[in-house]
Automatic annotation (TrEMBL), chain A:
The organism's place on the tree of life at top rank: Bacteria
Pfam families, sorted: DctM (PF06808)
Name of this protein: TRAP transporter large permease protein
Protein topology in the membrane: Multi-pass membrane protein
Function: Part of the tripartite ATP-independent periplasmic (TRAP) transport system.
Key words, A-Z: Cell inner membrane, Cell membrane, Membrane, Transmembrane, Transmembrane helix, Transport
Chief localization: membrane
Domain TRAP C4-dicarboxylate transport system permease DctM subunit, residue spans: 3-410
Subcellular locations according to the entry: Cell inner membrane
Keyword Transport listed: yes
Bilayer-spanning residue ranges: 45-63, 132-156, 168-188, 209-231, 273-290, 310-343, 355-378, 390-410
Keyword RNA-binding: no
Family recorded in the similarity comment: Belongs to the TRAP transporter large permease family.
From TrEMBL, chain B:
Subunit structure as annotated in this protein's UniProt entry: The complex comprises the extracytoplasmic solute receptor protein and the two transmembrane proteins.
Alphabetically ordered keywords of this record: Cell inner membrane, Cell membrane, Membrane, Transmembrane, Transmembrane helix, Transport
Keyword Flavoprotein among UniProt keywords: no
Family classification: Belongs to the TRAP transporter small permease family.
Transmembrane intervals: 48-65, 86-110, 146-168
Cell compartment(s), UniProt: Cell inner membrane
Primary localization class, coarse: membrane
Record-given protein name: TRAP transporter small permease protein
Keyword Iron in annotation: no
Length: 419, 182
């Protein structure tokens, strides 16, 4: 019955946070365990009383400030110096700029929005196909949750109770691996697409781009450096990145006005509030999962299917690809981690870091798959290309992502090597 | 009249949520600076966390008012307009149910009537009800925890107002759309 209520609420488009919260209320009422009602509000509050979650508003703020302060544009120029001259230069610039942005932003959806606006018109002007340009940009967005910092990793860290900083470090090699595979994909696609010729910037331009780009390039360094050296917690490096973006945008590039700040904080509050509220609701929904013994039942079923960790992870990837097609990635993460992580750890001896990276990457792929791929629709609405055409151009990149996933499931060392 | 109340509440909530987002940032920065100077201020972290929690509930209230919450629309998108209007009514109703339920649970939790009968004497209240919520402390800020928890009943109440207005609106839309030829 509880499951029916859950599905009914979910598919009648009730906001997901409330689906979880209402299902929990229903469950407590129907199970007669009404003493749980006494602690329901406290649990709702307590689930988000976490230091790690502070990173979420701060990384969102850093992204907003980067954009308003013109830092995004300078990073793209910086990428021009590195790869602009190759055939298909802009396609590579797009990818490199996405890698740098991924080291600042924590969210694929907002990165796709920002980069689509910044890159696609330029690519179109040079003769690239519009839906292909949108597809490269959307694929680049997939790097955002893998290359640290990553909002999904913050959420996973909070849910799985593993240190967020180590989760970030675990993402570095998978992020680089995936970037490499994307580079290969772009060059292979070049055989089909006949990219326009790229152009190296002139020496004077290059100096200009470099000088203007250095302050912006400093920010990813601060974030990653702070986390890697352990000098700052992820929360603190996000705060420093925000401050850096604010100062650089205001005093170096002079694109940012203080009068915009209030709007920026408003958007930060709304966007991060939506995510954090999901965690709060997951806190009370957790009772349903625990008392119904869902992990135990799922574990018994899975143990009957396989005893090989690699096969298990592939099964997880398969199931989550389906889940991610229908449910938003963050909500899906909140639903599946409490169920699957205990199984992965206790039955298959999989490190929580490997599990986390695989699960997060799988769920972001859902952003780019119809029917509810939010990233696909964002890219489409920002560029005007039809979602289905973008999806078709995306297929090679999704294949590359799948290859990454298989590699990561197979060789856990790729994830845990730097830890 | 009600509608204006709901709008006014929402703009206050949004304003405070934005201020709290700024406060979170400043507090974390303050923490870095004070630690670098070798005199870490111990209560900053906890205050930043509470600011974030308050920001979350206040922002959620306005997000739900504007019907911007993340939801699964894969099935509802396939439906004809008229059924979709009625589903919107259902969704608004569910938000109202949640808001009222949460408020009722908070009411039980805070038990204001029993507290009043105990003459606002926390000891007497606890002896009477075995409800110890008023004796819980925050770890470092030095106030009782129930002050911080107050955001929940506030959230529930304002969400109830928003949901009521939205429900009224969506019923009217569904009703008038039902009268039109398809």
């Amino acid at each position: 019955m509880t499951l029916l209520i859950f599905l009914l609420l979910l598919f009648t488009a009730v906001p997901i946070a409330l689906v979880l919260a209402l299902t929990a209320i229903w469950y407590i009422g129907s199970s007669g365990n009404t003493v749980l009602f006494e602690s329901y509000p406290q649990q709702l509050f307590g689930a988000i009383e976490s230091y790690g979650l502070l990173a979420i508003p701060l990384f969102m703020l850093a992204g907003e400030l980067m954009n308003e302060g013109g830092l995004t544009r300078r990073l793209i120029d910086l990428a021009r110096i590195l790869v602009g001259g190759f055939r298909g230069g802009l396609a590579y610039i797009n990818l490199v700029a996405n890698m740098m942005m991924a080291a600042i932003m924590g969210s694929a959806a907002s990165q796709i929005a920002i980069m689509s606006r910044a890159m696609v018109p330029a690519m179109e002007k040079e003769g690239y196909d519009k839906s292909y340009s949108a597809a490269i940009t959307a694929a680049g967005g997939l790097l955002s949750p893998i290359i640290p910092p990553s909002m999904l990793f913050v959420l996973f860290g909070v849910l799985a109770q593993v240190p967020i900083a180590e989760m970030f470090i675990a993402g570095i090699i998978p992020g680089l691996l995936m970037s490499l595979l994307f580079f290969l994909t772009i060059s292979l696609m070049g055989l089909v697409h006949q990219y326009p010729k790229g152009e190296w910037p002139t020496r004077r331009q290059a100096w200009h781009f470099l000088l203007m780009g250095i302050p912006a390039g400093f920010i990813p360094l601060v974030i990653i450096g702070g986390i890697l050296t352990g000098l700052a917690t992820p929360t603190e490096s996000a705060a420093m990145a925000s401050l850096g973006a604010l100062l650089i945008g205001k005093y170096v590039y002079k694109d940012l006005q203080f009068s915009h700040l209030f709007g920026i904080f408003k958007r930060t509050a709304i966007n991060s509030g939506m995510v954090i509220m999901l965690i709060a609701a997951a806190g009370v929904f957790g009772w349903v999962i625990v008392f119904e013994q869902i992990p135990q039942n799922a574990a018994a079923w899975i143990a009957g299917q396989t005893s090989d960790p690699f096969v298990f992870l592939l099964m997880v990837v398969g199931i989550l690809l389906l889940v991610g097609m229908v449910i938003d990635g963050i909500a899906a993460l909140i639903l599946v981690v409490p169920i699957l992580l205990p199984i992965a750890q206790s039955q298959f001896g999989i490190s929580p870091f490997q599990f986390g990276v695989v699960v997060c990457l799988t769920l972001v792929m859902g952003l780019l798959t119809p029917p509810v791929g939010a990233g696909l629709f964002i890219a489409s609405s920002m560029t005007g290309a039809s979602p289905m055409r973008i999806f078709r151009s995306l297929l090679p990149f999704l294949a590359a992502t799948l290859i990454t996933l298989v590699l990561l499931s197979w060789q856990g060392g790729l994830v845990t090597m730097l830890l | 009249m009600f509608k204006r109340l709901s709008n006014a509440i929402a703009s206050v909530e949004m304003f405070v949520a934005a201020l709290l987002a700024a406060a979170v940032t400043l507090l974390v920065l303050l923490n870095i600076v004070s630690r670098a100077m070798g005199q870490a201020i111990y209560w900053v972290d906890e205050l930043a966390i509470y600011s974030m929690v308050w920001m979350t509930f206040l922002a959620t209230s306005t997000v739900l008012k504007k019907r911007q919450g993340v939801s699964v629309t894969i099935l509802t998108d396939c439906l004809p307009t008229r059924s979709r209007h009625w589903l919107a009514v259902f969704s608004d109703l569910m938000i109202l149910v949640f808001a009222v339920a949460l408020f009722a649970l908070c009411w039980r939790w805070y038990s204001p009537v029993a507290l009043w009968q105990a003459g606002f004497d926390f000891q007497a209240f606890q002896a009477e009800t075995f409800n110890f919520m008023y004796s819980e402390n925050t770890s470092t800020i030095g106030i009782k925890k129930f002050w911080v928890w107050l955001v929940l009943p506030v959230f529930a109440l304002s969400l109830a107002v928003h949901a009521l207005i939205n429900l009224y609106d969506s019923i009217r839309t569904a009703g008038s759309a039902a009268g039109e030829p398809v």
